[in-house]
Write a structure and sequence with these properties.
Strand 3 (107-112), helix 6 (115-124) and strand 4 form a beta-alpha-beta unit. The protein is built from nine helices and ten strands. It has one domain: Vaccinia Virus protein VP39 (Rossmann fold, 3-Layer(aba) Sandwich). The strands form two sheets. A seven-stranded mixed beta sheet has the order 4-3-2-5-6-10-9, with helices on both faces. Strands 1-7-8 form a three-stranded antiparallel beta sheet. With 263 residues, it is an alpha/beta fold. Helix content is 39%, strand content 25%.
């Protein structure tokens, strides 16, 4: 599949999302305390049903040989790690679609605090292990997984310091923060936006803040890559469309790999 064809695939996914996102209000600045009032927004079963439509199209693309750049960046990140047990927790896994992208080379466990998402994941991927769990209170023992993956969710968690602590506690070696929105300043930017018409928290993280939280928990940053490829005219078109649809302030999504200092 050439670049033009893959771009058309990506644009089609974006258009599908737009059709499901009727509320196009722009982001609104907020205080961290305001975001905490929206902590349960992701539990809405409306999100699970609408996300399924988009994910099904992405998975169909994958089966047809088109690997979205956001999936490719994660696989490349994982390929660079020195792994032994290859156990991975997909914390806040939504409908578990990353289990398909990762394949059988990992011993996969998924958790999400939305019961609707977990039910959907169990239906779509019955051979995988899924459980209902809050990222700020994971029901797993210390050092349970070689890798803890947090994909596209940290931006929605007001209690992010607790969430980071929990990911570090349950990992024995690596924590990967995938598709993390980064601000250009020295401080986090707090706002609210709409996800599938549900008002949700949105946090743009200052990298210094992110690194400091992981350092408190005994982890250091070892790799940072863009979660999407931004080079070339077609990729710029994709990025522009995504920003228009999500109505974000901007910001680039990065994938951060943190490694436990004692390893």
């Amino acid at each position: 599949m050439n670049l033009f064809q893959s771009t058309l695939r990506a644009i089609k996914v974006a258009i599908t999302y737009k059709k499901l996102q009727e509320n196009h209000d722009t982001e609104t600045s907020a205080e961290l305390s305001d975001l905490k009032l929206l902590s349960s927004a992701w539990k809405s079963d409306k999100i699970a049903k609408k996300q399924e439509v988009v994910v099904d199209e992405q998975m169909k693309n994958y089966e047809d040989g088109y690997l979205d750049a956001v999936f490719g960046s994660l696989l490349e990140t994982l390929d660079d790690l020195q792994l032994e047990s290859r156990t991975i927790l997909d914390a806040a896994c939504a409908s578990g679609y990353y289990s398909k992208i990762l394949g059988d080379s990992f011993q996969y466990t998924g958790s999400d605090y939305s019961s609707s998402m977990v039910e959907l994941a169990k239906i779509k991927f019955p051979s995988k292990d899924f459980s209902e769990a809050d990222l700020t209170n994971l029901p797993f023992e210390d050092n349970k997984f070689e890798i803890v993956l947090v994909a596209g969710v940290l931006e929605h968690i007001p209690e992010f310091k607790v969430a980071i602590s929990e990911t570090c506690r349950t990992s024995s070696k690596y924590v990967i923060i995938h598709r993390c929105l980064i601000s250009e300043g020295k401080d986090n930017i707090y706002s609210t936006g709409f996800l599938y018409n549900i008002k949700t928290p949105r946090i743009y993280y200052a990298q210094d803040v992110l690194e400091a939280e992981f350092k408190k928990n005994g982890y250091e940053l070892v790799k940072k890559v863009k979660s999407h490829a931004y080079e070339g005219i077609f990729n710029k078109i994709k990025v522009g469309i995504k920003r228009y649809i999500l109505r974000r302030r901007g910001g680039v999504e990065y994938t951060f790999t943190f490694k436990k200092l004692s390893v």
